[in-house]
Amino acid sequence: MRSRFLPSLPAAPERPPGIEAYYRMHAGIYDATRWSFLFGRDAILERAAAAQPAPARILEVGCGTGRNLVALARRFPRAQITGVDLSGEMLAIARRKTTPYGSRVTLLRRAYDAPVAAARGHQLVLCSYALSMFNPGFEAAIEAARRDLVPGGHLALVDFHATRQRWFARWMGVNHVRMDGHLRPLLRETLSPVTDRVCRAYGGVWEYLLYVGRKA
Ligand SMILES: C[S@@+](CC[C@H](N)C(=O)[O-])C[C@H]1O[C@@H](n2cnc3c(N)ncnc32)[C@H](O)[C@@H]1O
């Protein structure tokens, strides 16, 4: 029987329920499947490089299996790059891919609900198909990214934006993705837009957002 004199348990850390279990199942098929619907990942890297041609320190939030970390390490051979992700299984794949880049790439396993290195700052923070899964938590992540940037640094984001198809929104919800255009207003409020573009996927079944914002 519960005693009413027992101290209450500390609150569980804010993290999306089930995300780690979801990626435990999906990590093995992630790279073979996501090319067919995570559009704009190369385009956002182009736009990020146009905004920040030679960043010294880069952070990728929700780096997953490390596809973008490898692209960043190749494109910016002098940069120190950090990838943060909740999923140990996704990070294990990222670790294998980024081993050739040695100590230039650091991986952290944690929820991104606070800055990783606000004191030193990053010139570039990349969020690629991550924040639409931070439910709850996207507001804290955008604020953490703002604090992780140096003044004049850029956040580059590509993510699901919205859909008019209710069946699709429901299906994406089952897959932990929120798609009601909720990221764009907060991004616009937090960081001055350099790129702010909505693109259509599969003839308009859904839209995705390319956003590059500058910290004042
Ligand atoms: C769709 S994947 C994107 C991976 C990679 N950025 C890409 O473009 O392929 C989303 C990633 O976000 C991670 N993630 C979800 N919620 C997170 C959180 N609160 N903190 C850190 N990572 C999180 C997941 O574990 C997953 O690896």
UniProtKB/TrEMBL annotation:
One of its GO terms (molecular function) is methyltransferase activity. Residues 58-153 form the Methyltransferase domain. Keywords: Methyltransferase, S-adenosyl-L-methionine, Transferase, Ubiquinone. The keyword Iron-sulfur does not apply. Gene3D superfamilies: Vaccinia Virus protein VP39 (3.40.50.150). The keyword Cell division does not apply. This is Ubiquinone/menaquinone biosynthesis methyltransferase. InterPro entries: Methyltransf_25 (IPR041698), SAM-dependent_MTases_sf (IPR029063). One of its GO terms (biological process) is methylation. CDD domains: AdoMet_MTases (cd02440). It comes from Lacunisphaera limnophila.
